[in-house]
Amino acid sequence: MSPKLPENNSQTITDYLNHQKSLIAEDESEDSYKFAFDDEDFLLRRETLGVRFQLELLKPEILLHEQGIEHTITVFGSTRFVSSQVAQEMERSAKSPEALATAQKALLHSKYYDSAREFGSLVASYNASQFEARNKLHIATGGGPGIMEAANRGAFEAGDKSIGFNISLPREQHPNQYLTPGLSFRFHYFAIRKMHFMLRARAIVAYPGGFGSFDELFEVLTLMQTKKVVRFPIILVGRDFWCETIRFETMLQNGVIDQEDMNLIHFVENAESAWHVIQDWYQLA
User: Fold this and answer.
1) What is the C-alpha separation between 11 and 189, in angstroms, rounded?
2) Would you tell me how many other CB atoms lie within 10 Å of the CB of residue 190?
3) Residue 116 to residues 143, 155, 275, 277: CA-CA distances in angstroms?
4) Which of 35, 74, 79, 240 is the most buried (most CB within 10 A)?
5) What do you get for the CA distance between the two ends of the chain, in Å?
């Protein structure tokens, strides 16, 4: 009995676009005669995976360069948090005990949304005092809702550029409304998206979040621990959440990480403290 292993353990671009295998056979001259760059079915073949990787890497690289963006601060966090204003409205309109409990939880977590929004505004205020693009730091997020929206919103409302690296999912994640036109990008491959989170990052600011936030955070920590990238501040907002969820001290005691690894992390409680860490690190005015 042969094992029933999947042919591909992730959603393929062909599946995503609902292309059938028969469409990429190109048995007809009409198909084979097309320019390679104008032949969508050919570009979706398994053999052209490397080309698609290159294109996803290159497109944002070119557009960001054209916009003069050299440095970013990448902000992670839960997609589920809403502003205090939205949470209060949820509480006022709750019609059942379940809805009221949901609203109260949203109100509890709204402090993180409001903090991320304030942080985006603080970074934008700094940029407004700089005349050269090479001295500016721009907010970059995953481009979706929650903490991502909040950080983008703070920068956008202050008149600064706001970047979103969105990802195509089976349940589509739509870009938030606070992204600068021309700086909202869509990725199919998580790996390339993560590269763009890091390529220009001069700091990481992580708010409480779920699997996605932890995935991104540990990727950065691993890159720094193994000295694959130059070290820069990794700022975790909300010490209680992070230290209750990740037992850093237990990891230290068991010798699976070193104190040097813990020195990568800065715990703060608010947006102003997060910005002060970055200011001190880079000696910003």
Assistant:
1) 10
2) 16
3) 14, 10, 11, 15
4) 74
5) 69
209 has a pLDDT exceeding 60: yes
Mean pLDDT of 172-198: 93
- DSSP one-letter string for 153-199: HHHHHTT--EEEEEE--SS--PPPTTSPTT-EEEES-HHHHHHHHHH
Name the one residue in this structure whose structure tokens are 């932890």.
Answer: 214
Across residues 124-138, what is the average pLDDT? Answer: 95
Report how far residue 39's alpha carbon sits from residue 20's, in angstroms, rounded to the nearest whole number.
15
pLDDT band of 13, cuts 50, 70, 90:
low
> Does residue 9 carry a pLDDT above 50?
no
Domains and CATH numbers, the chain: 50-81+112-282 (3.40.50.450)
CA distance 72 to 197: 9
Q: Please name which of 67, 69, 101 lies closest in space to residue 87, comparing C-alpha atoms.
A: 101
Please determine, for residue 4, whether its predicted confidence score (pLDDT) is greater than 60: no
- Separation CA 202–CA 231 (nearest Å): 9
Report the run of H or E that residue 75 belongs to, with start and end. strand 72-76
Residues 6+ apart with CB under 8 A from 185: 59, 60, 63, 143, 163, 164, 165, 166, 196
Alpha-carbon distance values, 187 to 48, 145, 198 (Å)? 16, 16, 15
- Whether residue 15 has pLDDT greater than 70: no
Mean pLDDT on 220-244: 96
Per-residue confidence (pLDDT) for residue 1, from 0 to 100: 47
